[in-house]
């Protein structure tokens, strides 16, 4: 594994115009900037074609016989299947509005990380083989031949895009670069060229129901272990419900919350909340993954993995699904579920059994995000919280790309944080809400071998955290995405050391006052709580107003 450069070495690059045009600048595979290649067995498990041994660092990628026809036929198929693909190939006017909006461009200075150029990698081939002008005029109209070097370039740069869609917010035509990247990855998959960090979790999820391949008994024993900690903290014995037919609600979390810190603390927060409410819910040890690495592979793969949540809801006979703090699970549920696996007519429109709120926004998907559910509880004063238990934390909030841009979940997390914490500060406006900056590790890039890429891509977000640390003393980065909880600890350690990474429901769990509970002395990390709540300063009061004031459905 490549050694991670020091901060000043990493930032020692320029945005100068390169000497050669992008078409004539060869791709250099730099260690630390790419993920390892797929092992054939993980493609075979899910029936994906042309699995073979290869490495991005090799000169010869052992492409299958007829590889060029495979790709061009695949491109033609995609154009027939997805009107958006053809549209995105044709309508870009190269205005450049997106050019400097990508965190990978901001963190590398590499022109091929400008969204407009990243799309041109694919468009140039589309023009050459599928447009008359491209066939006749070639490079004059931005067309080029499909060669092995082009395939390598696609792999390098389509796995340097986190499909975060920030660039799309600024595009006057609404061109969705994440869709283009996904199509590029689909074409590479036809040649057996994925990354192991994505293909492995896809195979695990297909076989075992979650990305790391946790067996049902492992999931249950992990959770029992967490419940023992909760008993030490609160004095309450909590007995989660597993695979229970006839429960009202199926609760699905990203599997990272089941086994890896700091996600496990978020999970403990969910469990405390449900215990206090007496909620009629069940977890499934089979549909044990809300995340979906299939989406980082190909549309059909994502559709296959998404189906399990709904199949399990049907098997257990629940009324609706409550989902945990995950990012891309929600993009898929909100933007793709209906046409992939829907409509979920066998389920009911979700109604909170505690407040009676009917979640009309989930009338079709029948799936409610836990922050929608909890914000509604707080709005109706159905739970008692003591925000002073979080007084040792000065919190900022990272809008996960998928929940903010793909489902507009902007106010609910802020509303909750403002209720359960006394010290909350927003990062600069151009880095939050729809314009949020990516963690730099989404879409399956959170591997270990590409750490330089992750630190570069995450730099703009980390820089905004550093800003609020210096200005307000922020020491905690709250979020509602499992990939954020997995990737931010390394990013913070590198750029903003000392910053804790926390799911919003960890903050809720800390603050939640349970019926009959004595004074709590430990937080969910088993660390001492502050003895006396510190009074909020005047400066804090003025900085917390953004999330105040209700939501569409409450
Ligand atoms: S989707 Fe995100 S990572 Fe991809 S090009 Fe756009 S801004 Fe960059
Ligand atoms: S902003 Fe849209 S139209 Fe302009 S260059 Fe970028 S993708 Fe093309």
Automatic annotation (TrEMBL):
GO MF annotation: an example: metal ion binding
PROSITE patterns given in the database record: 4FE4S_FER_1, 4FE4S_FER_2
Keywords noted in UniProt: 4Fe-4S, Electron transport, Iron, Iron-sulfur, Metal-binding, Transport
Domain 4Fe-4S ferredoxin-type: 152-181
Tree of life domain: Bacteria
InterPro entries the record matches: 4Fe4S_Fe-S-bd (IPR017896), 4Fe4S_Fe_S_CS (IPR017900), Cys_rich_dom (IPR004017), Helical_ferredxn (IPR009051)
Region (Disordered): 530-554
Keyword Repressor: no
Residue ranges with Low complexity bias: 534-546
Protein name (Swiss-Prot/TrEMBL): (Fe-S)-binding protein
Organism name: Gordonibacter pamelaeae
